Amino acid sequence: MASCQDFEVTVHTSPGLTCGTFSRLWINLIGSEGETPPIAVNEGDCHLLPGSSCAVLVRTEAPLGRLLLVRLRLDARTGFPDLDWHCSRVEVCRPSEPEKDPEQQVFLCDQWLRPAGGDVELRSGKLCLLQDETEEKLKQQRLRHLQNQQKIIRWRQFVAGTPQCLDLKSVSELGPNLSYTHRSPAVNLRNLKGFSERSEAWTSFRELETLFAHNGKHNAVASFVQAHWREDWYFGHQSLNGCNPLMVRQIHSLPDNLSVTEEMLRPFLSAGSSLQQELQVCIPP
Length: 285
Prior knowledge:
The chain is 19% helix and 23% strand. It has helices spanning 136-152, 205-213, 220-228, 232-240, 262-265, 275-280, and strands spanning 5-13, 24-31, 39-40, 53-60, 67-75, 85-94, 103-113, 120-123, 155-156, 165-166. The strands form 3 sheets. It has a 4-stranded antiparallel β-sheet, with no helix packed on it. A 4-stranded antiparallel β-sheet has the order 3-2-5-8, covered by helices on one side. Strands 9-10 form a two-stranded antiparallel ribbon. Strand 2 (24-31) and strand 3 (39-40) form a beta hairpin. It is an alpha+beta fold.
């Protein structure tokens, strides 16, 4: 009869204020030769509090072989709020022979788990391409993860001729790991009163600097624009990354009201070329 194996498992909750949960956590250890049944982690005095660690001893009836994966699952407790939980990592320590340091594996998580989300499987060690995986169980785990992501991230065409967009009714369908909410700091409206009715054009960047100086922190974007707005590369950047870059079109003749001549552009043209030749060059879409 094969001897038992003991594993000391420590589950770490991330330190954020909202990272803890009331839900019950179950864990399985999956090896190359077998896996353990689900074992409850946060029983008794152990709670999944922000920044906390919960340790549990896992004893197997038969050898697991090489430890490949750790499976986590949350179950909501009756009478308690169903809160998401953010796991930092899971550490698994396998006691070795006497007078030797124990073997430890770290399974990074750094993601949200929720009871409705099902099982989450973690792996340790370095990542590699799917075709370079040597363990069949790791290959299957990666395929399951890919299939699950494909169910969540779907594409559809909103209007014919436009780029595709996410096939979602609400951003909440992405789940907590693919969506987030960022709230910008409040704007000092006291110093903005009256500007909504301003009809005069700005006469200089100094006027804009005065506006920014009285409205919160230094505006790094405005400073960058002030420093580079006259440069050709930044003009091109604004044209391609503006509100509607799809409206940029190639022209084959200069507009009558554009005061640009071939003599002005000759230093920038290739040897033997002309402005008219360059205008006729077909740029692929």
